[in-house]
User: Fold these one by one.
Assistant:
Number 1:
Amino acid sequence: MSTGVTTLEAIASFAPERKVPIEDLVDRLGLRRTKLRLFQRVHGLKEIRFDPELSLFDVVLPAARRVLADEDTASRVRHVLYAHTTQAVTPAHIDPAREIRDRLGLHRAEAFGLSQQNCASGMAAVDVAGELLRAEGGPGDCALVVTGEQAFSPKIQLIEDVAIMGDAGAACLVTLDGAGDAVRSYATRTLGEFSAAMLLDEERALRFSKVYAPELAAVMRQAVAEAGLGFADIDLIVPHNVNLQSWRQTISELGIPREQVFLENVERFSHCFASDVFLNHTTLREAGRLVPGLHYLFATVGLGATFAAMVITHGASVTAQGAQRDAGREAA
Amino acid sequence: MENTAVVESVETALTEVLEREVSGLTPDVRLFEDLHLDSTSVMEMLMSLEDSMDVAIDPETLDMDDFMTVGTLTAYLQRLLGEGK
């Protein structure tokens, strides 16, 4: 059993080009006037990426292809983990994880899905990937975590009063001790009393709204503490894009400056199933806002309800070979 | 605006948000405990009041203490109306 550090060697994301303003979804989602205003003015949503003309795999595969750009990388992949939120994203005779593996030509890898933590499944898959590599991986082996779903029905596009889901996909290449972002800690807490997820009765829904910010704040504090850090050491929080109001409450609970949370993608993409933190990481990296050696905190919540947070250190390779590759990537 | 008119606007907004008739509110009625609002339905009520009372609400500066009772809510709305003058 290895003691290697879980490292995010590469992260990429994809969103359909088709932009749909929130107001165009009123009929599809059955939103009355004040609900639309709530999403726009209070929750801070403007538009989503949403293209029913694309297939599931059109959304999922582009990011994965980007992180597997060279043959050497593809040959190192031992596991493919498809983290999704909706249980049945394909007809029963199609196993989406195997389909993704086969379409990517990763025939040596085992493939499986991971979905029970809903929008926290992406981060959970990174943790599982690290554990698998520590348990049975060889030097240089990696695991590919992919996310990506479509809001194919109004029933899964609208989380009443909370979120409007958009389409996006992401891929995260996980290895041990190589080049990339080192995972310093991962904290997670599942509260099973909310397992009815989108079908919570009124009393439990009210209770969930009350515990949401304190529980998320507690998990975020735990992740920061387990990384041996304080919030002042976190350069930026990379959140899920559920809505601004939930973040106002969580920021208030944490007592941190609002500028410490990257919220610019809420109005651009809204909440994209299990992909948000990877999508936001991509945006920040492409804008040159991730600084090598600094610490970042992923934070998300999955219905059901799982609260999860992970501290990463950008470009913090723990091997000389990894450091060289990091230097090359930053220069590029 | 007269306080009775503000209360009437609140009743209309709550009728829309709660999808049931709300009337006869008095200042001591509690929004959360008595009317069973939650933080989201309070926000939705404010969106309705923005239109009917021609006030502008800033989601960034809301203080939940203003939404404890019908009395604190009407005082908050009167302050907004004052700022608009």
Number 2:
Amino acid sequence: MDMSMLINILIQTAYASTPLLLSATGEIFSERAGIVNIGLEGIMLISGFVGVVVGQELLNPFAGVVAAVAVGALIGLLHGFITAYLKGDHVISGLGINLFALGFVPYGIYAVWGVRGYFNPSDQAKVPKIFGVSPIFIASLIIVFAIQYVLFHTKFGLSLRACGEDPHSADASGVRVERMQIIAAVIGSSLSGLAGVFMSLDWLTTITKDLPAGRGFIALAIVNFANWNPLLGLLGSYIFGFSWVAIEWLKISSLKQVIPVTLLNIIPYVVTLAVTAGVLGRSRPPKYAGVPYKKE
Amino acid sequence: MKVSMSSIKLKDKYGDILMAFAEVTVATLIGLGISAILIKVGGYSPTSALYYLFKGAFGNLYGFYTTLSYSIPLMLTGLAFAVSVRAGLFNIGAEGQVYISALGAIMVASIALPSYLYLPAEFAVGVTFAIAWSLTAGILKVWKGVNEVVSTIMLNWIAYWVVEYSRSNIYYDPLSPDRTIRIPVSGRLPLLIPNTQLYSGIFISLAVVVIFYIIMWKTAIGYEIRAVGLNPNASKYGGIRISLVALEAFAISGLLAGLAGVMETIGRPPTYAIVTSLTNLVNLGFNGITVSLIGRNNPLGIIPASIFIGGLTAGATSMQIFAGVPLEMVQAVQGVIVIVLAIPGVIRLIKSKIRR
């Protein structure tokens, strides 16, 4: 293996890990405040689609990214409103987001472009590289450190974590729990929106009806793996991200004579199962994550 | 005294059913309303879309038979989700269990057997596969604490690729490589009404729902499952072995999803096979979630719910053909219905807003 191939694998791993990292970081932020959102997969898909629609229509990738993040934030607002204010069921609301995306995006692809299954944006709509790398990849690294800092080194972060650990005490000490949870849900979901548009306008530059291919749920696994810590999430995302690169790598290796290419697609999911089963048991979620908070 | 007590209880029960019905109606109206907006924005006619959706589902006898035919698997996948929820688990793995059980049926079809053995063997192998698939998530849950939402979705994807691989590389039909070999005629479930899709599996599904109702409400195992779902801590102190109950719930759930997958493959005309990208199986498991939630995770509520969602599935094709609206739209309607049903006491909420 020569140097250029190694660099190539590193870049591929970085890109394959970026959507996982963004989505998992957002979910860690959200769950730290007590809001569980299993609709990450659906948000990625919807945002990925909206990003392509807007980016392609205006031939402006920046507008596409902004629209995608805004849609992610909007879904977060809806989910946050249902769970924090209306005391709705976190998991069912998230399931609903996923089911909606499963229908809305293939419908939208046909309604907008008149094609079935997938659409590839034109070159002018794609996110340009900065110094040869994706700007969203760079942003993902900045975001994870920023979230780590906010969560553990600011008063805001302390109040936010209090909402997830002990909302009654947080409330008693003057934190507006519901408002805090909505903010966390909005920020968390907008990061999944960014993850979606990273795939559709930057890394893979296509929108298909199963663009995230389970990544939203792998991000949930990373949240567990990372014990709700963003920096450990960074590690987890890169471990899981590499499994996707491994597929492409094995497809061109001599191993393809032994294992058929179609079957290689199971690797990321098997890795996720194996790794989560291997490390779990030691992690502990925020005490009130997913539990509707009711004032006494 | 005793009489009045029970009559109050009865009144409460009817009140609950009425309330559930009202909530589902509101959720459905919101779902259809939002989809009408999306249909309009997409440049189609919402009135014509809704007209053909309902015409295709309930407008004539043929449509109604198609609707009923889709309720056959949905009843079972709905029940599969319901039993998990009753045990306090969010097992969304019915989707993958449907795939893997269908593969089991096709594997049986690929071997030479005395003709009377095909049917029982298809059920036995398919359902066993599905139970094993479901128990994998169950074992990971009780042994390692792996979140079942994550593990079941991973298992869905693994099932998808394993079955898709088997379809294209092992069990493909040399004459028609876009699908697997077909189930032999002696291994198929008979049609109930000729020239429709309504096959006799509907009796199996209905019987399973009734048996299931009895198990859940009249036996010790059902009592334990419900107790664990309602209050795991109290159940533990009450002497119920929680992990055993969880495994039971996963196994039952797999059995139900497996029945759905086998019956769709050996019962629905005209293919009697697994087709490219598993399109004849995709979403049967996920739609069961909607069925279960609409039916309030109650076996008897699941029957009408499965006919309703079966109707959406059947009507979607007619909507696509006659109104030009892509059939995936009905999936989005279901998503909205589920989101609305996540809100507790929708009706109470609306009432309080109106009074204000």
Number 3:
Amino acid sequence: MIEPPPPSNPDPVDPAAGAAAPLRYVALTGNPNSGKTTLFNLLTGLRAKVGNYAGVTVERKEGRLKNGPARREIRILDLPGTYSLSPNSLDEQVSRDVLFGRLPEVPQLHVVVVVVDASNLQRNLYYATQVIELGYPTLIALNMTDVAESLGHVIAADKLARLLDVPVQPIVASTGQGVPELREKLVSLALNPPLIKPRLFCQLPGLFRIEATGLADLLANTFQNRPWQATAEALLILSNENALASSRTHYPPAIQSAVAAARKRLDAAKVDWRGAPIEWRYARVAEIQQAATTELAAPGETFSDKVDRIVTHKIWGTLIFLALMFIIFQCIFTFADYPMRWLENGVTWAGDQVGGFLPPGDLRDLLVNGVIAGVGSVVVFLPQILMLFTFIGLLEDTGYMARAAFLMDRLMSRVGLHGKSFIPMLSSFACAIPGIMATRTIESPKDRLVTILVAPLMSCSARLPIYTLLIGATIPDRVLGGLNYHLDLGFTRFNLFGFLGLRGLTMLAMYLLGIIVALLMAWVFKKTLLKGEAPLLIMELPPYKRPLFRVVLQHIWERSKLFLTRAGTVILGVSIVLWFLATYPRSSQREAQFEARRNAITRSFNPVTLATGPGSAAHQAAALEEQLAAIDQAEFGENLRHSFAGRMGRAIEPILIPLGFDWKIGIGIISSFAAREVFVSTMSTVYNLSDAGDADEGMKTLEQTLREQKRPDGQPVYTTLVAVTLMVFYVFALQCASTVAIVRRETNSWKWPLFQWAYMGALAWTLAFLTYQGGKLLGWG
Amino acid sequence: MPAALQPLTSLALGATGTVADIQLPAAHRPRLMEMGLLVGTKVELIRFAPLGDPVEIKVRGYNLTLRRQEAEQILVTCAA
């Protein structure tokens, strides 16, 4: 065990630096599912800063140690979960690069905390020993000791500490047990760093040791003043093919050729330089694990095993999976309804308040019809988005997500992807951005790219407002009478579609359409553009656990913050620009014309005429109102047609007519290039402008307004067929500036996001065309 | 008497074998080994996914999934 040096040699604190005393920087690392993030939350509280590493969208979580020392700020960096220091994915590469000090944005580390899952000690120690060898002051957080004990493994922490030669603190992160002691040990390591002597856990025999030592000398000469041990680094770059490839710019040619030469010599001596170090390390790790563990019970069937017998069962597993997906959609569509109505009323109320407070004019118009109506119509969908994120958070935190990947892998492999692509695609139902961010767990770059290219075809929550609006406006609220499929379970029969309305079914159809085409496109891409062998699937099925309320809440909070900041920035900006486009240029000549028409009509209903018609005064007043409203309507229509937006909408009308859309829908499509949900706020801006004269009735709901829209020939604009065509268009079109931006960042080029934008646009137009024209042929128009 | 070699996938469900040979290409082998699947390691065949692929195994006390194609290239000797 390492003894900290005596306190007679404290770190000098520069008095001039004051509050900005030098930081102590701590990395938290460990295997995936080791409870690392839970521990991170406990150590830092809820004040973590979430961002990204430069150039990649690997999530970077950093926070200040809560209850740390008074004069020193200790910052903790939560590294992505990693199985080994030989990276197999972008996530693992980032972890490795941080530990090797290769990222300029991450300061030098002072302490490394390795979270080790006590119930899965050998595989966790494999990674822990690799990290210990680097030579940082290291602390082992031996997590889930409760689970280990329930399985009959009692681990002697002191013995483990002696064998590993680093401090070990048993903890239960889910309850917080042992965390104060861990914090204490962490602070003491950070403030009084011990002297580290080089150590290697695997015994390198003969030739391998010679080669590793030679390479270590070369490394030590090339890079000086580095805190980690050259031998550990030499071992890693010698044994792992990806080590040089994934850090090509880091190692100078002299080292690259030295590695190649060493491998050649090892090959000649028939030493398996890839596998042998892994075997040696596991041999030592198994010894350590056995020496530190007392087995109280023979390994038996765990709780997770029992659950999995049902959840991954051929029949029950599939049914549970389908039922879960179905419940999620049904909840989003049904239960979110009430809070959405409340929000809707709140937005109307806010608009009325501001409208009553300000004098009529452009400013009031901008605030009420531009800002409040625009942002409000998007914020209204927050309940649905919260619900979706709750489900995804729960699925992730319980461990079901990995089972979903297990169940879906066969289907995904049909199109050349693997189960891991399923999770990003499932996340894309909430938002393509976290979905695309989730692709970083996919090892093969080509598969990752294919997944990125098709992920936005999943109907994200931004489409939900559009679907909801169009379905609400045109699809009758009916239970599907014709379908009467009974599911016979032996003991009971129930009507499969009895509780599913026509609206829910339409929604489901849109989601399915996206899924089917996404799989089809993935297959096409894998066959053509991104040909490659089927990827390997090596995936852990972590034990089930009770979801931690805090973790799920935090997940929901982070995601909804993302959504709301988007509503607050992109959508606010677009709403204002759009209001401007729909309002200007004004024409005083046109205003005077309409004013004259209004005056003429008012004059023709003079009080004398009103008085002579017995009993018809009220009737005539109503007629006057009606005619005035008609003129207002005509004026707004005229203004919109001549506005910038109207001109743009009409400019693209020729390509929209074959889809059954008019130029007002064109305005909606143009304005939602930046973000799909803007379509809804645009339509409310577009139509609220023409309704602004209807003060008596207050703000109509957008759905009603859509239903009332008529073409010049008197036919309704939003027939069911047009609404369905519009939804199909939005299933496919990549109308999302944020997705384009994130794909650019993920792929490091403009080539792929532009390609994606173009192919999805082409799909959208073509399939919308086929829907509308096909529907008309079948007589649905 | 040395027990006969057989692919991991041909174990009976719930049966345990000892890895005798990993015939995967050299580029794919290390990750499998880092996950703890080495020559001499005991593996239990848990189940196949509902659609027949992938396969779930238990190794060093945790559950791991592999595709059938890779699992077939892991040869085991059966204890019983």
